[in-house]
Design brief:
By secondary structure, this protein is α/β, with parallel strands linked by helices. 42% of the residues lie in helices and 17% in strands.
Length: 424
Amino acid sequence: MFKNLERLRSKGVDRVEPGLQRITAVLRELSSPHAQKDYVAVAGTNGKGSVASCVASILQTNGYRTGLFTSPHLIKVTERIKINEEEISAEALENILETVFAACERIEVKLSYFEMLTAAAFLHFNRRSIDIGVLEVGMGGRWDSTNVCDHVVGVITNVSFDHTEYLGNTLGKIAAEKAGIIKKNGLVVTGCTGEPLSVVERSCQENSARCLSLRTDFTYRENEDMSFDYIGPKWRLEHLKTSLTGPHQLENAALSVAAAELLTTHTSYGTNPEKIKKALSEVSLRGRMEYLDRKLPVVIDVAHNPAAAEKLVESLEFYHPEKKFNFLVTMLDKKDIGGFTKILSRVSGKLIVTELTGAERHLQTEKILSLVRGKFDSVEMVKDIWEAYQKLLGYGEAACVCGSFYLIGYLKEALENEETFHSN
């Protein structure tokens, strides 16, 4: 029925092809939809999905028709493209992909999976007349397909080790790739520290871009009730709360408010502080410290690198200081499974390793097992994901599932199907 969605799937969701030449050529053939609307770009190693969702919520709550392009998806590819929180329909995406494929064939250019969806998002946002869009950068920044836009604001959340086979094996090299989103005379917000911050600041100087740096140009103060106060160049906002769970989400929310302040003080996109409070309290994002059961508790999280594992463990320690968690994990190839599980072991008793046989670049369970032995009270391999999850619950103890977007997506879909089955 959906032949173009099938053609998209056949491209392989994980295939990465650096360079902007292909996407630029196809967009030019499509009458340059990326140049017809304003966009905010959000890059960084971790937290960019949270920041992108917060910025989009702030803009929408302030009355702007707001597009949001994120990746990866958990269950359905349509999750990636939204306008005012409404996902694109499968029918609309099928129709738009027909247009993109046709453009590719006319000029004999082949786009990757992510490039196809980027082009589709621009077309959808144009057809549905958004006021402004928010783009989550897929990987890096310099040659990511979202970087064809002259963004009105660019956010770089942080820089840590991930995708080193593409971005480089030092923080400086990775930061340089992410700083590639910085535009001439642009507006930039960053939460980077250390060497990555120096790289970002140098790029801003070279491009005559205005940069707001966390802890230097703006900051936030955490309150006892888990609200926070934002202190920016001009704004002072008190008792802001985010619906996203975890102490680290306060930093992500503060980066979002800084982006809103820059938009308000330097562009035509004004935002009201009271509406910002409402927006942050209502933002929704699945798979980030998401509770499936609050009594045990059972948590799922898309953390898949050591820096994200650190934030996850800090959150578990913060909300459940007396508990040990049993973990269910799987990871993709090239990920730092040793560093990742070492951090988890601080709060963990038992570890179950499972396998996603359908995912490209999947790290085999035997290799994972060789890297984790000795870090946990017990380690067990259960290849079937649903069986592994049931075994995790069977311990009757605090539990957490993490390590891969694919794993969280597979589990959420299985849980939704089970709920539908039992309700019929």
